[in-house]
Structures are given as structure tokens and as C-alpha cells.
Design goal:
Elements: E1 3-8, E2 22-23, E3 52-55, E4 64-65, E5 75-78, H1 79-85, E6 93-101, E7 107-112, E8 128-132, E9 135-140, H2 145-155, E10 160-163, E11 166-169, E12 175-177, E13 184-187, H3 188-196, E14 202-206, E15 210-213
Parallel strand pairs: 3-6, 11-15
Antiparallel strand pairs: 1-13, 1-14, 2-3, 4-5, 5-7, 6-7, 8-9, 8-10, 12-13
């Protein structure tokens, strides 16, 4: 099965030339109990997140909108996209209502979590490199997740191990999250549906950083 990287489009006639396309209102309380900053990557929140935004200057309303307030994997989407996604087999995901000032349309944040994803990574078939900021320091071999953690620990904080591409077993989901780099990937069927439905503000490209083994 072919997979595609799904993310918000940037700097197009459709989206406008502003990123992120939405900003947090000036009166937003980031320290509140239901702040967007309290959403975590590996667990669903036990509260209803306060997701309020305003459109950035020169940005336009689209079905998928780029944002930088929420730091965990996910997408800010319209009701139209939500209804498309709900027809497919997704990794465990929740949708939270989001408000964008000036828009009468309903928006949502999809929050996918795939803790088991790391078990699908084929470390020995993947390609791994050591980088220090933008400098490529060469390749490294990793046997498994334990080996990855040990060698990363030995390198310290300045040097990081990156996989490109990461080889994973077919997850058999129509939407999943890259377990290491947190990109969002969709199946061919879902990609076709998004395109035929003319979803706006979408960038959809064949997966290159992730290789799915059938």
C-alpha cells in the first residue's frame, strides 16, 4: 500500500503567504488547566483543551490550517475533513473542537496517538545518520530500539540520530503517525478521497522519510 505525507500547505495562493496561518489570541492563558500547551504526545488529555485561534494577517481560511501553538502531532481541520477521516481506520485519535475568530465554520484538532508504532520500526533496514545541528556526521547502524537509546545516550544532547528513511511494517491504518519524527501519513485510498473532495490548504506528497513494508 502506498502512503502519503499529509500536512498543511504553506505560502500558496489558496493559503496566503503567512505561517502559521493562525495565531493564539492575546488574552489566551497558556498556564490554565486546559491550556493547549498541556496536551501531550503519548496520552489523551483528561480535560477539554481550550483551542482558540485568530487568523494571521494575509492568511486565508482553508480546510487544513497551519498552526504552531500545539506542539504535539495533529492537524487543525474543518468539519469537512473531520467527516472524511471518520470514515477510515485511524490510529487511536480524538477530535477536539477549535474556534478560529472570524470563521462561522466548525474547526477541530485531530490528536492521533500511536504508542505501539515504535514496535513497527525495522531498525536494521532503516538508514540512520548522526547530525549536529545542520552538519551530517555520517551513518550509524542500529539494531533495535534499545540500541537506539543506548547510542543516543552516548552521543549526548548536541548530536542526534535521525532516520531517513525509516522502514516500518505495514500498520494497516489509513492514518498513522511516524513513531520517531511524528509526521502524519495517510493511505492511498484516504489520499484519493481528500483530493476528490477538494480539501483546501492541504499538502499531500508521496512518503519519502517513511517506507512501509507490505
Amino acid at each position: 500500500m502506498n502512503y502519503f505525507n499529509l500536512k498543511p500547505a504553506v505560502d500558496t495562493e489558496e493559503t496566503g503567504n503567512q505561517f502559521p496561518a493562525v495565531e493564539t489570541p492575546e488574552d489566551y492563558d497558556f498556564k490554565s488547566a486546559n491550556s493547549a500547551h498541556r496536551i501531550k504526545t503519548e496520552e489523551f488529555p483528561k480535560f477539554v483543551p481550550d483551542l482558540r485561534f485568530k487568523l494571521a494577517p494575509e492568511a486565508k481560511f482553508t480546510d487544513i490550517i497551519g498552526q504552531a501553538t500545539i506542539s504535539v502531532p495533529g492537524l487543525l481541520i474543518s468539519k469537512k475533513v473531520k467527516e472524511i477521516l471518520e470514515k477510515y481506520d485511524l490510529v487511536p485519535s480524538k477530535f477536539y473542537s477549535a474556534e478560529i475568530a472570524g470563521s462561522k465554520a466548525d474547526y477541530f484538532w485531530i490528536h492521533p496517538i500511536w504508542k505501539e508504532g515504535i514496535e513497527f520500526v525495522n531498525y536494521q533496514k532503516s538508514e540512520w545518520r548522526i547530525k549536529e545541528f545542520s552538519h551530517d556526521l555520517g551513518s550509524i547502524e542500529l539494531l533495535d530500539r534499545k540500541d537506539h537509546l543506548i547510542k543516543q545516550g552516548e552521543l549526548g544532547f548536541m548530536k542526534m540520530i535521525y532516520g531517513n528513511p525509516i522502514v516500518i511494517s505495514n500498520p494497516n491504518f489509513d492514518l498513522f503517525v511516524d513513531p520517531l519524527n511524528f509526521g502524519i501519513y495517510v493511505s492511498q485510498q484516504l489520499a484519493n478521497d481528500l483530493q476528490s473532495s477538494e480539501v483546501s490548504g492541504m499538502e499531500l506528497k508521496p512518503a519519502s522519510k517513511v517506507v512501509v513494508e507490505n
